[in-house]
Automatic annotation (TrEMBL):
Belongs to the HAD-like hydrolase superfamily. PANTHER family: GLYCERALDEHYDE 3-PHOSPHATE PHOSPHATASE (PTHR46470:SF2), N-ACYLNEURAMINATE-9-PHOSPHATASE (PTHR46470). It comes from Pyrococcus furiosus (strain ATCC 43587 / DSM 3638 / JCM 8422 / Vc1). The keyword Magnesium applies. GO terms for molecular function: metal ion binding; phosphatase activity. Pfam families: Hydrolase. The keyword Hydrolase applies. Keywords: Hydrolase, Magnesium, Metal-binding. This is HAD family hydrolase. Gene3D superfamilies: 1.10.150.520, HAD superfamily/HAD-like (3.40.50.1000). InterPro entries: HAD-like_hydrolase, HAD-like_sf, HAD-SF_hydro_IA, HAD_sf. GO terms for biological process: small molecule metabolic process. The lineage of its organism: Archaea, Methanobacteriati, Methanobacteriota, Thermococci, Thermococcales. Its cofactor is Mg(2+).
Length: 211
């Protein structure tokens, strides 16, 4: 059995951590009088990045540069560095695994399944997340779009994961997006499992699985 897993918002709370980090930037932006960037965060326009395919192979630093250059033509390097450092610290301080992830990984490993992570963004950014989250050693292979040059909007990385373990007959792709994870899974004739995370009133997380 081969299980191909997504990382962001399937195994960990990436967008929630980004939201918290963005909010924590607001006092710094106001102090620096960066009102346009303040408005960018306040209106949640950073969510548009999720739909820009080119950005899915970039790391945080490169994405931040794109955002800043989009909003400001000339910004002091010291100010950019202050913004970047604060965001980076706050993001990783709030990055968390969902509570069902470790039990799931332990169970499928006990079953003898091969587990492959297929994820977008730069290699350094994603591998740092795995180190912080402490789950790197659960994977038999890690495929990052920043390494291959192909985002999950195309099926290349899913085919690559499949080729690494050709003897596995049953293949599952688990992720949170129809346009990447489910589409990629169907391209390799895998059973696709769509995960939708919902925040509970108590502050925990539930996992809704749609086959």
């Amino acid at each position: 059995m081969l299980i191909i897993l997504d990382l962001d918002d399937t195994l960990c709370n990436t967008w929630e951590a980004i939201r918290i980090a963005a909010i924590r930037l607001i006092p710094t932006l106001l102090r620096l009088r960066k009102f346009r960037m303040f408005a960018y965060i306040l209106t949640k326009r950073y969510r548009e990045l999720e739909e820009i395919r080119e950005l899915h192979i970039l790391g945080f630093e490169e994405i931040l540069d794109r955002i800043i250059n989009k909003i400001y033509k000339n910004l002091e390097n010291e100010e950019v560095q202050e913004i970047a450092n604060l965001f980076d610290r706050t993001f990783f301080a709030n990055l968390r695994l969902y509570p069902d992830v470790i039990p799931f990984l332990e169970k499928v490993r006990e079953m003898g399944a091969k587990i492959v992570l297929v994820t977008d963004s730069s290699s350094s950014w994603q591998r740092r997340k795995l180190e912080v989250l402490g789950i790197k050693d659960y994977f038999d292979a890690i495929i990052v779009s920043g390494d291959t040059g192909h985002s999950k909007f195309e099926p290349y990385n899913f085919h690559l994961a499949r080729k690494k373990f050709p003897r596995e007959k049953k293949v599952y792709v688990i992720g949170d997006r129809d346009d990447t994870d489910m589409k990629g899974g169907k391209a390799i004739h895998a059973t696709t499992i769509l995960v939708k995370r919902a925040t509970l009133k108590e502050g925990g997380q539930s996992m809704q699985i749609m086959l």
